[in-house]
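Hey everyone, long-time lurker, first post.

I ran two proteins through the pipeline my lab uses and got sequence/structure pairs for each. Pasting them in order. The first:
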Amino acid sequence: MPPAALGAALHALPRSTHPDLLVGFEGADDAGVFRLTPDLALVQTVDFFTPVVDDPFDYGRIAAANALSDVYAMGGIPLTCLNVVCFPADKLPGEVLAQILSGGHEVAHQAGAVVCGGHTVTDVELKYGMAVTGRVHPDRIYTNAGARSGDVLVLTKPLGTGILTTAIKKRKAGEDLIRLVTSTMATLNRDASEAMTALWPRTRAATDVTGFGLLGHAMQLARASGVALELHASALPILPEAESLAGWGMLTRGEKVNWEYVGPTTEVDPGLPAPRRSLLLDPQTSGGLLIAVDPSAVDALLAGLQERGTLAAAVVGRVEDGEPGRIHVRS
């Protein structure tokens, strides 16, 4: 759903109020958080989408990793998962569904979460994902609202999954590239979250980068935190061939929608090449975490990410005083 339309719909909804509702939908956070005891809160989220790769098992893995990511972005630990399936039973055999669910189960097991069941409906278009419940300490929740002026922005996964999956659909990607982007999307954000939470409270805010692209999710973080951001386009971690494929027109429809969302509050250096701008707007499937970290902890965070195998992590910008939500993209 286009972000502007989604925002308008949410704005019209009544606000849920409860003394134990710690995070609702007002700040465009990745998940809701509800306190059970002084030391325990539940993190709850749901996400599902249409296939981004041809292999059903890999599709299940990617969709599960994507759904689990919201819990990791809040600093939580996944506990349980429920499958959410829309399945065209008149078009696809049951083995396809079995493979999708098997892929999702494998990644949930990797995350240490239990798949409790789920719900399936017949639909004209295949969709799969998960509703996930996790746990977090009520005093250690990461939201969009914690960034402070002077913080450094770290991105933990390379950009370009939307561009590359478009190339896959158009049969313009080779087998090696398909394996690489599949592996990237199916990789959990668990290690990145562990590196982040190990440095609490010097890591202050986080969001995962998904459908609204890096610029869209960065803007939400800036608005909620009441700050402005500067992003360094030259520092972005990028998947191989993504930039060149963007230059050849392997773009998603979501890029235009995302620019309509962020354009009014975003200044882009005139010299920035169009393919690099496309990467900033590219809708990501199971993207990385964008973390706001105190400058004194940047080296420790990067070291912790490296130690856990999150090798693409990079400093991509900083937090500044300014109009909330405004972003300056430097080339």
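...and the second, right after it:
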Amino acid sequence: MGTKAALAQASKQGQAATSAWPTKRIRVVAAGPGGASADILARVVADGLAKETGQPVIVEPKPGAGGALAVNDLSQSPQDGHTLLVGVSSIVSEIPHVIKMPGDMTKEIKPLVEIGHGGLVMVGAPSVPAKSFGELLTWVKANRGKVGYASYTPGTLSHVLGLQLNEAAGLDMTHVGYKGSTPALTDVMGNHVPLMFDGLATSLPLIKSGKIKAFAVSSPKRSPMLPDVPTFAELGYPQLTAESWMGLWVKPGVPADVQAAVRTTTLKLMEHPDTRKRVLELGLEPGSTRTPEELSKSLAADYRRVGDVLKSINFKPE
């Protein structure tokens, strides 16, 4: 569905709720620490919602447990649509494989709008003696048992892509799990771990400054931020095509007309050039107009994909 058609449909659905939402201050919970991608995007959304609705909008970062603490905050809020959540799709599709969650994430939160999306990028330390992906594979094969790759969290896409590349290319890279991108990237830059799969939001500034090398991206198309970096599909590994997305989520029990009004307003603000520019600056492409039902289906598919790969190595959640 095109953007104009999606806006028209969402507007029609939300017209009846215009007077019902919002009636007071809106609170946006960001699933992550202050200054991280979710927090920054939450503030972009908050600025837009405040202008569109005339109501004050505050942002509260809520780090911890892979987003579970932020989800718990939303779950305990009133079901009136005045508490929203901004967080990455992995809250539903990946983290439940990593951490034993208290409940079913698909029943705790519902996606309303995709704010931005992007794949991961395979990056290397300055000392890696390869200038292309082909040269990288040759180097890894020549150093069997000696090459490690970092992930920002074990069990996430950052971990899974390395497992898939091992199988597809006949490699034996060793996984090194971290708690977050920052410590992992620090060790990559310091030549302690040669490779990593990371999100563009955190890697892009380091790639641009020459502190790390970029070899391939997992998105279906080349990233506009890294137009010279090929996709895994281009390189002959379509099974490594994968993206995550940052979304606006709501408590499922919020009335349907209010959900429609939130979605209508958010889609409208996402069309503003300034909003799209700020999303791009974070290393993400502006989100699509996929419906909540389409987003939920993609979450289920991603959950199964990650789960199947982790089962193959007998990965157990913490």
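Reply from user beta_strand_b:
Welcome! Quick read of the second one: The chain has two domains: 3-117+245-312, 119-240. Residues 10-18 have pLDDT under 50 and may be disordered.
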